[in-house]
Amino acid sequence: MDKKETLITFVVPVYRVSDEVLRQCVNSILSQHNGNYEIILIDDESPDNAGKVCDELALNNSKINVVHQKNQGVSVARNAGIKLAHGRWVAFVDADDWIESSFIDEFMSIAQKHDDADIIISSCYVNYSHAQVLNPFFKDDKIVAVGSEKDRIILGFLCPNINSDNVGTADVGSPWAKLYRREFLLENNLSFNPELKRMQDNVFNLFAVEAAKTVVYENRPLYHYRKSTSSGFSRYMPHIVDYYEKVFMITTDFISKYHKPKEFMEALNVKIIKSVYVYCKMNFFHKDNDISLKARLKNLRKCLAKDIYTDAINNINTKWLCSNERIWYVMLKYKLYLGVFCVYKLKDILYNLTGKGIK
């Protein structure tokens, strides 16, 4: 197949994924009704058997290209995929997820109706160990956004509640369940920031949607997002606060640079407040944090004394919080940090029991 004619390049970063799950992911791409595609598997020096599985899959199919790189993270892996892509469109697929066999056909039917689109977004399924749930990203079944209309989509990366669009478990900020026109990515020098260890997806999409001429969303569930209790959010990350604060700084600069309306800071304030739960889960109250509870609470208090959190707490628009988030917000506002610990523990127990927890 002439690679210049390739319709879609699927970029799949590979790191710490079981053989069975990785094969399911790749086979779902190989099962496409439309055969005009290529697959780039980026092995990020995975310490398990995943790299060997990638090579084995490539031996049996000429559509697969494998790149083995020194471990540098998912951002570098995705950027490598963009550079190597020959497709008219680029689609990112996480190695523990999979796609519908009609993925290409469905996306191309949208692209044919909107030939000026730079980004096309579908809905997805969220797959738990015990259930599959339809996950729209917006309350409308179709959105065609140009100019300032794109703000609705960008706000979804920060706080879906702000447009009453929070209709699913998974948020729209991830790079999967999307097509990006390759020339658009290259022309605008769009890439993932390797310095960001968290939410690099959201930052990438902030700038991508802002630069796009037209963004189209249709509620067609074409992607399967695997959600489990063994996700990266269960790991102990002592530097998680630093990671998030870098993203908040970049987002604040983005809002200022592009003169976004006040709803953007309101949305960011919500994101900042909700981030504190992640800090508790991955740092302050994680089981591998071996300091005393008293010291943990002291560290949480010190963190929340920073201007970025006090400003968010004092200026947040609480109507964008759901009922459970308002409880969390009140705990933070009145410095009820022992109560924060109890709420976290309750949510953690419910998440481990149900796989969903409290949203």
Explain what the structure shows.
With 359 residues, the chain is of the alpha/beta class. It is 45% helix and 17% strand. The chain is built from 13 helices and 10 strands. Strands 1, 2, 3, 4, 5, 6, 7, 8, 9 and 10 form a 10-stranded mixed beta sheet that branches. α7 runs parallel beside α8 (240-257) and α9 (262-284) packs across α11 (307-315). The radius of gyration is 21 Å and the shape is globular. The mean pLDDT is 92.
Count of discrete alpha- or pi-helical segments spanning 4 or more residues = 13
| Mean pLDDT over the full residue set | 92
Summarize the helix and strand pattern as letters: EHEHEHEEHEEEHEHHEHHHHHH
Low-confidence residue ranges: none
Calculate the terminal CA-CA distance, rounded to whole Å: 46 Å
Shape: globular
Extended strand count: 10
Structural class of the secondary structure composition? alpha/beta
Strand content: 15-25%
Give a short account of the largest sheet.
10 strands, mixed
Radius of gyration over all CA atoms, rounded: 21 Å
Portion of residues in helices?
Answer: 40-55%
Q: What is shown here, in short?
A:
The protein is an alpha/beta fold and 359 residues long. It is globular and about 60 Å long.
Topology at a glance:
Layout lengths: L7 E7 L4 H12 L6 E7 L6 H10 L4 E5 L5 H11 L4 E4 L5 E2 L3 H11 L5 E9 L4 E4 L6 E5 L4 H8 L19 E4 H6 L12 H12 L2 E13 L13 H18 L4 H23 L8 H12 L2 H9 L7 H11 L3 H18 L5
Helix pairs in contact: 1-2, 5-7, 7-8, 8-9, 9-11
Considering the chains and any ligands shown, give keywords for the structure:
359 residues; 45% helix; 10 strands; alpha/beta; globular; 13 helices; ten-stranded mixed sheet; single chain
